[in-house]
Design brief:
Helices cover 13% and strands 32% of the residues. With 813 residues, the protein is of the alpha+beta class.
Amino acid sequence: MGLLLPLISLLASSTGQPAMLRLVVPTTNDRPVVQFSLGTARRPDGSSLAVDPNSLLLNGRPWPVVMGEFHYSRCPADQWRRELLKMKAGGIDIIATYVFWIHHEEIEDRFDWSGCRDLRKFIQMVQEVGMYALVRCGPWCHGEVRNGGFPDWLLDKGWRLRTNDPNYLAKVRTLYSQIAEQLRGLLWKDGGPVIGIQLENEYAGPAEHLLTLRRLARDVGLDVPFYTRTGWPNLSSPIPFGQILPLYGAYAEGFWDRQTTPMPGRYWAGFHFSRLRNDTNIANELLGRPAAIDQPDDTLYPYLTCEVGGGMMSSYHRRVLIRPADIESIALVKLGSGSSLLGYYMYHGGVNPDGKATTLMESQATRYTNYNDMPVKNYDFQAPLGQYGQIRPHYHLLRRLHLFIHDFGSDLVRMPTYLPDTRPNGPHDVDTLRWSVRSDGKAGFIFVNNYERLRSMPAKDAIQFEILLPSGRLAIPDRPITIPQDHCLIWPFNLDLAGGIRLAWATARPLCRLDNGQDHVIFFAATDGIPAYFCLPSGLHIETSSGSLDAISDTQIVRDPRPGRVPAIQIDNGPSNIQIVLLDRTDSLRLWKARWAGRDRVFLTNAGLVVDGNELELTIEPGQAPWVCIYPCPAGVLRGNHSLDGRDDGIFKVFWLDQEARPDIRPSLTLIRPAHGNRRITIGSRQVASAPNDLEMEKAALWRIILPEGMDLGSDPILQVRYVGDLAKVWLDGRLIIDDFYNGNPLEIGLAHYLKHGQDARLEIAVLPLARDVPIYLPQQVIAEMEAADGIARIEDVRLIHRNRVLLTATGI
């Protein structure tokens, strides 16, 4: 029950001899049979959802899926479809979204479900693109929204909120009824995409209130298979088992901490493999820092997550700058710690909508959920997909991980996690290797994380794993290797390639697989600094494109095949052929898999890629010579009415795509007023620095941005402003459209979200000076900028980034 603890030891020699990391995997026993209380779980077509202690189940089989948060009310409705397709292409299956009460009933009894607030249209779009939805219904949500989502008028009532106060519950019933009407015909039981709803959020009170919300939701028609809650914090009274699924989370670092130092508290723990699910770092400004413990029956639930940090916002007092590797590492650690559902918050950033009576962001100046000053409009979250759909480097890092989950996850989610007895001795131990194994006693995967945010993790020399299975011993690899600095990885052992042929082990990362008739192609990624070895049974007929082949005992090991797009290894298995393609790191991050023109295909491209029916859309930024490789390639590929000629590149066919050159016409700046003096930063009601008010913003430098005449909005251009200062605010014709608390990143603005073709708009930007020695947590690079000059408020560069799109269609199969 929970993560099994095998006999594990670390054998290390003080004489500098190689260290053998030894792990005994016992014969796996079945998990206990437990009963979960679900809503209606069968669709009209007979499809069914269920859950067991390991994972979610679809039609009785393990369902390895990935979830990502995207807030419909923080994105224009005409952008939903394109952004959902980007999320799908990135490997997201389930869209999680909050229903912020204040976004819909800011004025009592006047609900607004129009425009970007149209929940029904959004969920219909989710269904249209072939995805699922988990709706986080509140009534309290947080999400860095004013009052955590509660309307101001609700606070005026004097009721006991987030309790079973009858007056409060009557209003919650009205809210839930409105949501139910929005979702009418779109629930799983109707054949729709909504598989679950979350009740409340970060709730610490008695379980009876959550059970009341569950009953209320079902009474008004919100009948779904899965009812969920955040698994943090622990409830003040126990909840009957199986009624509500707990979902967990972890973040690389948080904007909400009271301290203004890097990585306070226990954020380091998110980079260590652990059996502990509860994370007391999340929302600790609201919940405090209780002891991090799980409840006795937590391990009878599958290990599901809803808030693995896809990025992080900056609050005024904490300017967190995320590195892409932060996000990949923390997700891989959750997977290696036993999670069977990675759910990201946020996966797609957004922009706060305009309020009818007030601004809608969290602020110390409000009465409820008022711990942090947040930007008025900006909710980019440094997410894999930015608030204007920008593709970030960690989008590719996570897509690579999601390929693995989708193609190998059906086995993975049934595998318990095993942890070594010798683990890092607290947060400062950077010398002990961090690793885990997930295995069913026959096959499995080794997870290694030699990365931690803002900490240099030295290379680990002379590493070799000894895995003792019930069937025998595996030494992985057969000779010691070095785990490079700041790397994380996944290695397989006894992996079923096809037709019963098993890969004994490999020092390369499995990516995905594709069956093409009698050809079974498995894609792996080489790790920089680690030789790629593939150990296979003797007796197989193996051909290699490069490297060497060593026969050792009853195995044969392919050593150092050269990464490329040709099969590194081919195995003749009678009527079928197994091919192993080993990609280098760059190509592994360019790898996509999608269904196009009637079948699954893999793609390599230096562009963004989405599939929409028979259309393959590539998004290309300036300076790229765009290309796409396709396997297997359809009979014909068209760009408009023009047939494209491809050439062979290994197993792929590559197509080079001409792009019309755009002149580099940049916006210009006109200084309206210079900055004058540094603002004296005050401490707010929650004992952290307060954001400036309108009067204090008069100290800011102000410029007018003059856009090029005839600018093509069809390319969905991004206006990128590289600035240095405390914060920036941008107005269009006097209306605030975006703001930003400076953390070293440029400010980016999706102009097509705001402008119309031919519009002569007045665009102005203000930058407030930032002084030295302020009570704000700043990244080291920003501190260095402040040391160079006190009271900086400058714009260093303004440019347009056009995002051109190329549509390809297929003929034949």
